[in-house]
Amino acid sequence: MTNLTKIPWCQIFLLALSISLPLGAADWSNWRGPNYNGSTGDNLKYPTKFSPNQGVKWAFDLPGASASTPIIHGDFVYLSTVSSLAADSGLIAICLNRKDGSVVWKKNVGSGYRPGGGDGFIHQLDSKSNYASPSPVAHAGGAVFFYGNGDLVSLSNSGDVLWRRNLQKDFGDFCFQWTFSASPTLHQGRLFLPVLQRHEPVHGRGQPGALSNIYCFDLKDGKVIWVHQRNTPAVMESRESFTTLIPHKGSLLLAGGDFLSSHNPKTGAEQWRWGTWNDGHKQAWWRLVPSPVHGSGKVLVCAPKGAPVYAVSINTNNDSSSESAHLAWDSSANGFVTSDVPTPLFFENKFYVLSDLRKVLSCLNPDDGKVIWKVSLPGKYKWRSSPTGGDGKIFIMNHNAEVLVIDAESGSILHDVKMGGTYDDLTRASIALSHGFLFIRTNEKLYCIE
User: Fold this and answer.
1) Which of 80, 91, 254 is nearest to 166 (CA)?
2) Which of 82, 83, 230, 414 is 20 to 30 A off residue 114, Cα-Cα?
3) In order of start, what are the domains of the chain with their CATH numbers?
């Protein structure tokens, strides 16, 4: 028998970790997964055939609907939601045990802050989404939750509030026509959040001259490290962006205000800017929803409301501060592809673009943008959850919680199943893949599929 007293403690820890986790298992610690592109970072098998009654390891009854994606880190699953139930009405943060779905903790973390003042709980400003639409971001010690009313809350794995602040209270009320829903980004031990908004009030909300900024917070205490003002000549709704900052080779990518830009995570300084898809900034109603996605030396950005998809190449010299960008191709030339809401997927060296306007999923060659295959999507509901990929398969879901499993190589539909209730029409969360399990969020339930 091995004498454990002679083995360094760090080797014992690594041995225990290798036993407890499947080979190659990866967490889904942020909205777009471990690679920030919608793909899983592991080599595990993921289910193809399942239903609400087949292949379910556990299911958790949700207190309310939300577009936020379930976040998985180690043995914990984090959920953001709203509840109008008398017992716990408010903005809810939940932590579940990944192995059995049991509740580790459930907290009402809303501050009650309302834009423009007022009393009483509200959870949305429009009928399309609610304050819990942003996805949490997790780390070894817990998770950070952001809500559309400006509440930014850090909670430990035991459910203790480590710190909290409200961005509207601290920096001024948001100037958005719709409910703000960018997700926070955790990178290099810091927390980042963009607020790209109008510079004039809308529907009575916000203040004249409101600034569009990127905020960097200390993960330990929530204090501001820096604020970078991101200017744009865009007008009205075209200034509004609901996108998330995406890490890429030591920088942060941001789309919105008619531009794609790269920022230094240490200072927020803009390293380069490419655009625009809005010539002369003539379109006043081009708010941006899809976040950028990178792969094969390209950054894909989706112009809104039926406009093309653009692929940008980044030129990096020996001095990383002298990056530049230029247009490699756009989808208008090679079989028109567009996406208004879903963020594309980069998986197995291909881009996959889900068009919610045309109900089509397209596979694109990243080198030239040519369409490799297209598949028309069934049903009458919109397909708006961003596609995710793993184990050679793509997973998408529509507003009615109908899930498709699609072969990434051929585009053939491998499985079509209804996971939600008959009248579900708010299901917009992306499907998360982690540790060999699918995490599927409908209006009423979170399913862990094995």
Assistant:
1) 91
2) 230
3) 54-66+343-383+386-427+429-450 (2.40.128.630), 71-166 (2.40.10.480)
